[in-house]
Each structure stands twice: as C-alpha cells, then as structure tokens.
C-alpha cells in the first residue's frame, strides 16, 4: 500500500513532468514566431511585415503572438539581441584560437564579421536596422536597454583586443574605445555597401575591400606595421 508521503511525491513528480512538457511546448511556439518574424523582417522589412504574416508563417494564432510579445517592435528588438549575441559569440570563439599578435586578432575579428554577414544575413539586416526608422526603434528606452547592453558587450570584445595590444606594446597608445568604435564603423560600413550592392557596382569584392580597410587601419595602429601586415598576407 502506498503511503501518504509516497503518494505526494508521485503526484509532485507527475506535476513537474507535465509542467516541463508544457514549458517545452510554449518554448517551441515562441521560437516558431521568432523564426517567422526573422525571415519576414529580413525579406520584407519592418514596415512591410504584419503580425498576421508572422503568425501565419509560424502557423500560430494572433492570440498566441500576444502571449509572448507585446508588439511587433518588441519581437524586432528581441531578434536584434539574438543577432548581436550570435555575432559576439562567434567573435569570442574566434579569439579563443591561438592567433598570436594584435594584428592577427584584429584581422580574425574582421573575417569573423564577414562570416556572420554571409551565414546569418537575416540577423545582419535586422541588427543593422535596415528597415526600421531610427525614431521608432529608439522610442521605448526600457525595451531598448537589452539591445544596448548586448551591443556594448560585443564592442568590448573588440576593445579588449585593442587594449591587450597596447599592453603588449604592439599598438601605439590610443583611446581604445574610440578606436574600437571607428574600426567597427568601418567594418559595418563595408557590409552595408555590399548589402546595397554597391561593391558589385564598384566591381570590388567585399573581401578585398575589407582586407584593404584593415591594412590601412593596422598601419596606423601598429608599432611595427610593415612586419605585421606582411605576415597577414603570407
């Protein structure tokens, strides 16, 4: 005969299993909505995408959408955080490899950004705010905070390489944060040129444009630029 305490234990165990299955089911629904929104935002833009289209793509109801997200702008911002986090993770993974000096590490980050741009162009188009007016994106500071936090965390990865390069006496004394912002703006600008098909019009492959930009930057940053840049080309 099952005792009272054993019965309670069995009941709680069953309840936890049911809750786990329910939570897992909710997670699947939320993921479907996010994936549908990511594909639509990337292809149609923010303004050209409706909540009805997102739910139709996910095969979920409008009511289900509002169980997980307050608005279209919220799901856009969540996808922005995901995309930035994915890029930051790729950068951190790259820097875990034995890359050597600052020139090699900065060059590897640039190549990683290009890899992200190509492999995850849907996320790139979202985090680059290709389709969303700046005013609307910045309208709710509380909702925007996670995007800013993730962006700063990603920028700090690059800043850390600059700072380490100065500590190792490989990079000339600079304001690490300012230089980081300039380098990031340069790389992002090249991706935007390619996204808008300008690199094709100019007949310059994006790889050559990025490598040339990095070489020019490294020649201004490094204490022994000729040796370092020559090493990258070999």
How does this structure look, described?
- With 234 residues, the protein is mainly alpha-helical.
- The protein folds into 2 domains: 1-69, Orthogonal Bundle (Arc Repressor Mutant, subunit A), CATH 1.10.10.60; 71-233, Tetracycline Repressor, domain 2, CATH 1.10.357.
- Helix content is 79%, strand content 0%.
- It has 12 helices and no strands.
- The termini are far apart.
- Mean pLDDT is 85; it is low at 17-23.
Quick take:
The protein has about 230 residues and is mainly alpha-helical.
Note the main attributes of this structure.
234 residues, 2 domains, elongated, Tetracycline Repressor, domain 2, 12 helices
Layout of secondary structure:
Layout: H1 4-44, H2 51-58, H3 62-68, H4 72-95, H5 102-119, H6 121-127, H7 134-137, H8 141-167, H9 176-195, H10 198-202, H11 206-221, H12 225-233
Helix pairs in contact: 1-2, 1-4, 1-6, 4-5, 4-6, 4-8, 5-8, 5-11, 8-9, 9-11, 11-12
- Provide mean pLDDT, rounded: 85
H and E string: HHHHHHHHHHHH
Shape type: elongated
Low-confidence stretches: 17-23
CATH class of the largest domain: Mainly Alpha
Number of strands: 0
What fraction of residues sit in β-strands? under 5%
CATH architect. name of the largest domain: Orthogonal Bundle
CATH topology name of the largest domain, in short, is Tetracycline Repressor, domain 2
What is the C-alpha radius of gyration, as a whole number of Å? Answer: 23 Å
- How does the helix and strand content classify structurally? mainly alpha
How many angstroms separate the termini? 78 Å
* Whole-number tally of structural domains: 2
* Residue share in helix: over 70%
CATH superfamily of the largest domain: Tetracycline Repressor, domain 2
